[in-house]
Fold SAM-dependent methyltransferase.
Amino acid sequence: MSAADATKGTLYLVPAPLDFGCDGEAALAEALPEGTLRRAAQITHWICENAKSCRAYLKRIDALHPLAAPLQQQQIGELPREVHKKGDHGGKSHASFDAKALLAPLLAGHDMGLVSEAGMPAIADPGSSVVRAAHALGARVVPLVGPVSLLLALAASGLNGQNFAFVGYLPQDAGERAQRIRALEALALKTGQTQLFIETPYRNAALWQALLQHLQPDTRLAIAAGLTLADAQVHSRSVRDWQQLPLPAGKHTPAVWALGL
């Protein structure tokens, strides 16, 4: 590390509990390691998806480890809404987001925290543009230990954890969604690769019906919801066995889905 790099702050990737959007809250001291919470309490400059959610999380941390600065004095910057909707990396319809401007405190020597509303930032959530910008600026990037819903769901599914892919959201259009489901199933059956995906909670019921309609009877389908909460649910069965059962996670519960062998 050069002398110039040594004067920069560190970007910490701070996991959040997985209870965002759930009816209850996880016990913070059980959902995240003490070291993660203690480090987070020392940070006073933040980049987040939503400032209100970030403040609520910091308030929960403060109850266990006093914050280095009062909540009102925490410097909190939000990622642009376009990043939430279209992603960090750019694509056919939009350019990649340059997050360097958000990292000005880092260049001034302040440590910064990147936090999402649930789980590990930049994993199934915005934030990778901030991480790329920190690397481009020569700053140190440190991921802290905490829950990652995709990996917890995969581990508890009984599906192949040696070969898997996260494919984000499935299409909203019924015809496109059916085509995508069949394509993912074909890939899983051909390669053994588990396919992980998520959905906006209020679309759970429609996704559930589409999966049961378009997947083959012997394909295995798993759903995990409320992970790390007291009422967490993880269910994994063949589509044939699911046919006579209701959606286990409820219509409005954040969930991770997986299909495969």
